[in-house]
Amino acid sequence: MIELEGLSKRYGDKLAVDDLTFTVRPGMVTGFLGPNGAGKSTTMRMMLDLDNPTSGSVRIDGKHYAQLTDPLRSIGALLDAKAMHGGRTAYNHLLCLAQSNGIPTARVGEVLEMVGLSGVAKKRSKGFSLGMGQRLGIAGALLGDPEILMFDEPVNGLDPEGIHWIRNLMKSLAAQGRTVFVSSHLMSEMALTAEHLVVIGQGRLMADTSMAEFIRENSRSYVRISSPEYERLLDVLESAGITAVTASDGHLEVDGVAASTLGELAAEHRLVLHELSPQQASLEEAFMQLTAGSVEYHAHSSATGLAAEAPIPPEAGAGYAEGAPPAAGWGAGWERERENRKNRKRGL
After folding, report:
1. Which of 100, 196, 219, 295 has the fewest CB atoms lying closer than 10 Å?
2. What is the pTM of this model?
């Protein structure tokens, strides 16, 4: 378990980490997300005593990192795949780590086999590709068979097989009851790997919740429904007190009603449906919505005339959580649909 309490770090006038308090618990993969410059790397460095906090504290299973006698037996970490002596072979790099932490020499061969580097154990690491360096860094994190593991961008440089391997490795470690804390900008991988999320922006905690709850709170969920009997479907929905909005492609969108309820309602009135599908945002969309107001580095229009995408208003995220219309102009869409419905009934 990793416990942060009031953790802050200031570099001159820059407050990189601002009063962070959260707990990384065992038995699950916890994703650590935030825009560039949010303070993720600084936070992870302070966890390992590589940077001293300005205030606050970090405890590793109840102890400060400096109090750990053989730290690699308690916590293993990959923060920088190139943080190794390029003149040493993969085997000797791990052997030095093992000897400094009282780890049996036999464990070096075990972890090299585990990460798929046995065939290059006697080669110097300076000739390794980024992906091979990542595997060697992961081997170093696993060397002490620790109960806590931290990975910063662990899939960088890995091929598809390697990405699949590290994803399953992290899941299996968590399934063994270990604490797994991973930072990544690849939202698709986080969505497949993490069960819990800690999200920061501009050094401050923005979310500490489950993956499912994070997406639910920071995105719009609705049901797409279509029928060849469009007008009758609208009548049935309206008689049931359900408001539907017509999308640009002609489908109806219904908020706040389960797909099963809509399906049963259509069956009751013998309505043919061509589509009935729940829609929910991806992790990336939910993340962008929450952190839009905390992005430090924005892209602007380029010389080629291609404009950068406009940022999502930060207040929209709060609207989602409070049940308000999910985006600017959405309320007007509801009003237009109601007016169109009235006009159709009057034959206009």
Report:
1. 100
2. 0.72
